[in-house]
């Protein structure tokens, strides 16, 4: 007779980790990104309080790019706080490019009397605070977040031209909006280099080419810098040597 066989038992498989347990929480990164988002929202709120034409206010690239940055930073802060994977670089890179455009164009073109496109006017105290938040604090905050709290090597060369979709679509938006407003309307065109009354459509086309090439060069510069910058110290223990810049 053979010995009766006992039923085989299999060890229960460990439960799958929940999305919130796929990594380690990053409270410092979360707090920093929350502050950047708060700076953007505060600047927008202050401008909204002082504005008597919200349609004009929200037509500015500055406001739109800061809204996008606030969304991305708040989203990234939530993921860092709950230990979820980082946002895709194509999203964070786009937000970084757009807010960088905002900061650079303001400081080197709109605030520069020698540029020929300066926009200088008297501002109330609230408008001055909003101006610094939206044109200086948030671009610097986005750059520091990229350099200190994100893994390098995530930006792809093809994304450099894909990111230009929004700035290119902003051009017809501004021109169509201006064409629908009566001549002489204050703020008919959001920026001097898009003012058809001053430059005509031929001049606007030339300005668009120059700015478009500059924005593409900036996108390429960010992409190449991202490939060659060192891994931030806070991430060195969590980067897989074969993960090509992805968090473990």
From TrEMBL:
The keyword Transmembrane helix applies. Residues 1-13 have a biased composition (Low complexity). It comes from the Bacteria. InterPro entries: Pr6Pr-like (IPR049713). Residues 1-23 are annotated as: Disordered. The chain crosses the membrane at residues 28-46, 58-78, 90-110, 130-151, 163-184, 204-225. Keywords: Membrane, Transmembrane, Transmembrane helix. The keyword S-adenosyl-L-methionine does not apply. This is Integral membrane regulator. It comes from Streptomyces mashuensis.
